[in-house]
Write a structure and sequence with these properties.
By secondary structure, this protein is α+β, with helices and mostly antiparallel strands. It is 21% helix and 54% strand.
Length: 70
């Protein structure tokens, strides 16, 4: 008999931070882990900043999060 394989799903989420892209990624992964089971990875698809008065005020990432289905 062949061994059973696993099936994974990818979902896209957006996360923001007031300090950095790294922090936005951390916030997104932590939120994904709080909501989804079996998170195995995340890919940063997009990065964006919000600017006000000539300075960056918000860092945002779009993440594709991979999780293995039960």
């Amino acid at each position: 008999m062949a061994a059973a394989g696993s099936v994974a799903r990818i979902t896209e989420i957006s996360a923001r931070s007031d300090s950095s892209f790294d922090d936005a990624v951390k916030v997104g992964v932590e939120r994904a882990n709080a909501t989804l089971r079996n998170v195995t990875g995340a890919w940063v698809k997009e990065q964006k900043v919000e600017v006000a008065n000539g300075g960056i005020v918000t860092w945002q990432v779009i993440l594709q999060v991979t999780f293995v289905l039960d």
